[in-house]
């Protein structure tokens, strides 16, 4: 409607294939104009996740619009629990292979987009409790707009948890970055490992450039990951058909749109380490790594990260890369000097009974912190 805000909710309880190409095109156009990059919510990865990982899960696609233009997009689902508490709440959908949860909001429309999204949740009879937002950049456009809007509306907002993870953002070239951020002792050790590995045969690394090789590269990655500890514990992508299908689908869509950054390291033509990254705008997100654990004494996982450092800092189209790693990760923290603070929030929703749930969650959290401080 002219001069106003239109909002829509689309349950994706079956498959993203139910969405017409025009719908995906709208999401892609929003992603291209997003104030904050998130490759996991770009149609490349999001639609692959909806197709293969959302079966049996009621994922709703919240859209905020102004004058018919899409200005906000956030996939959400209803959680039966909030941490250890049996409190139902709405949360942004982050499946097992989603490592960043910032909604897509149009640059310049940040507060308006959040106003529309929260208003829609306030009015939704299916939305219980409060909104639990996970995986946001504490210094990002979403966090800033949310804070401003919650102050304006006197809406409850509480930070639940935060941690720092490694990221790569530098104007230095790869060699200068390597010398500046990696300890001399570690550099010496890694050079020694590179030389020892080269004694076994021809070692080389390259980025995927030929689409005809994509299927084979995906298969090699899945096999390499499944042959290691992830396969043994059942968490490798190949352990579940739907996870493998999601991986192949996301890689195919991202490659088609020029957003797949797929790197491999070979020994005599055989992949011994592979690294998959997804791009969005000038940013990139490190997704998965796999390496031959039989060659663990040569640290192939670290060596491919060195090749990745060269590739990223040597590409003028990539301004930064989020490691998507856990806090205090011993390997990547020793190579990348920058950090990104990831946070999560509890946001109050308006409506009968919701304020009670928000207050109860805050109260239990505060009590737990006090008891912990007394121990």
Walkthrough of the structure:
The chain has 375 residues and is α+β, with helices and mostly antiparallel strands. It folds into 2 domains: 5-165 and 341-374, Gcn5-related N-acetyltransferase (GNAT) (Aminopeptidase), CATH 3.40.630.30; 170-318, 3-Layer(aba) Sandwich (Aminopeptidase), CATH 3.40.630. 38% of the residues lie in helices and 26% in strands. The chain is built from 11 helices and 13 strands. Strands 1, 2, 3, 4, 5, 6, 7, 8, 9, 10, 11, 12 and 13 form a 13-stranded mixed beta sheet that branches. β10 and β11 form a beta hairpin. The longest helix has 21 residues, at 354-374. The model is unreliable at 1-7 and 11-15 (pLDDT under 50). This is BioF2-like acetyltransferase domain-containing protein. Residues 184-305 form the BioF2-like acetyltransferase domain.
Helix content: 25-40%
Number of helices: 11
> Mind telling me the C-alpha Rg?
22 Å
Oligomer: single chain
Counting helices, strands and paired strands, the structural category is alpha+beta
Average pLDDT over all residues: 93
What would CATH call the homologous superfamily of the largest domain? Answer: Gcn5-related N-acetyltransferase (GNAT)
CATH class of the largest domain: Alpha Beta
Major sheet description: 13 strands, mixed
Q: Using the coordinates shown, work out and report the CATH topology of the largest domain.
A: Aminopeptidase
Q: What is the H/E order?
A: EHHEEEEHEHEHHEHHHEEEHEEH
E-strand count = 13
Q: Give the overall silhouette.
A: globular
* Low-pLDDT segments, ≥5 res: 1-7, 11-15
How many structurally independent domains?
2
**Name given to the CATH architecture of the largest domain:** 3-Layer(aba) Sandwich
* Separation, N- and C-terminal Cα atoms: 57 Å
Strand content: 25-35%
């Amino acid at each position: 409607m002219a001069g106003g805000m239109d909002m829509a909710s689309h349950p994706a309880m079956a498959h993203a294939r139910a969405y017409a190409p025009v719908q995906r095109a709208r999401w892609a156009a929003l992603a291209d104009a997003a104030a904050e990059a998130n490759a996991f919510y770009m149609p490349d990865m999001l639609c692959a996740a909806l197709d293969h990982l959302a079966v049996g899960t009621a994922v709703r696609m919240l859209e905020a619009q102004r004058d018919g233009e899409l200005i906000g997009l956030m996939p959400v689902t209803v959680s039966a629990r909030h941490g250890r508490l049996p409190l139902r709440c709405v949360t942004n959908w982050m499946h097992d292979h989603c490592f960043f949860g910032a909604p897509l909001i149009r640059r310049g429309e940040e507060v308006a987009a959040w106003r529309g999204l929260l208003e829609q949740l306030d009015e939704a009879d299916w939305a219980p409790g409060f909104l639990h937002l996970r995986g946001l950049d504490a210094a990002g456009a979403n966090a800033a707009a949310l804070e401003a809007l919650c102050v304006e509306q006197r809406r409850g907002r509480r930070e639940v948890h935060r941690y720092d993870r490694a990221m790569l953002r530098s104007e230095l070239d790869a060699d200068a970055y390597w010398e500046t951020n990696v300890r001399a002792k570690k550099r010496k050790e890694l050079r020694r490992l590179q030389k020892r590995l080269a004694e076994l045969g021809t070692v080389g690394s390259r980025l995927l450039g030929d689409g005809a090789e994509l299927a084979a590269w995906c298969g090699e990655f899945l096999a390499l990951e499944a042959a290691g500890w992830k396969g043994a514990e059942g968490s490798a992508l190949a352990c579940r058909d739907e996870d493998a299908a999601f991986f192949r689908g996301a890689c195919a869509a991202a490659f088609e749109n020029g957003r797949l950054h797929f790197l491999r390291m070979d020994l005599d033509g055989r992949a011994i380490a592979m690294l998959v990254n997804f791009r969005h705008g000038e940013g990139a997100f490190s997704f998965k790594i796999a390496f031959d654990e039989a060659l663990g004494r040569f640290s192939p996982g670290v060596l491919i990260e060195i090749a990745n450092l060269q590739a990223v800092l040597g590409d003028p189209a990539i301004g930064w890369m989020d490691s998507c790693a856990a806090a205090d990760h011993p390997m990547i923290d020793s190579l990348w000097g920058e950090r990104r603070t990831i946070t999560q929030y509890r946001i109050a929703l308006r409506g009968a009974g919701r304020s009670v749930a928000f207050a109860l969650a805050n109260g239990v959290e505060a009590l737990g912190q006090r008891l912990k401080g007394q121990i």
